[in-house]
Amino acid sequence: MARFTEPQQKYPASPGKRLFARIIDSILPLGGAVALAVPLLSDARDHISDRIEAIEHAGVNETVWLIDGTTGGYLAMVLGVFLGVGLLFEVLPVALWGTTLGKAMLGLRVLDMERQEPPSFGRAINRWLVYNLLSLVLVGIVNMILAVRDQPWRQGWHDKAAHTFVAGGSGPPASPDPVGPAQ
Q: I want to staple 131 with a disulfide (CB 3.0 to 4.6 A). Which of 7, 13, 18, 158 is the partner?
């Protein structure tokens, strides 16, 4: 692992820049998913209403599930667009160039911890999958807080899982201890 004293060392990006880059990078996948979900929402609502009316008309007592074969297909399409756009605009650029649209706008790069180069495709997809899975179970906020508090590399769990960090600083990060780290 590279040390902060090596001349070619890249330094961790500030938490504020990372957060702003993540917001920018989230716009395209979320926008694509919302663009597909909005027209499907009325179809799903109509499907559920029709099911309820059919059951009431038949005079039977039956449970109507919000996610069934029809609405589950709609959900799968929306998730597919979100994941596909995420792969296209995050995993591929990180693996090829070490950056995404948001990170490039802010001068940040995702780098492999050891080689200080863009991560391999496998590490880029691992990083992206861990981030999105944690976000799905609402642990993503904890992940972001831990990334801000992690010293000295400011790594979230997704960075640790892929052995990457986001570079962008112009110098070594400030040490929380004025004396410096123990040797």
A: 158
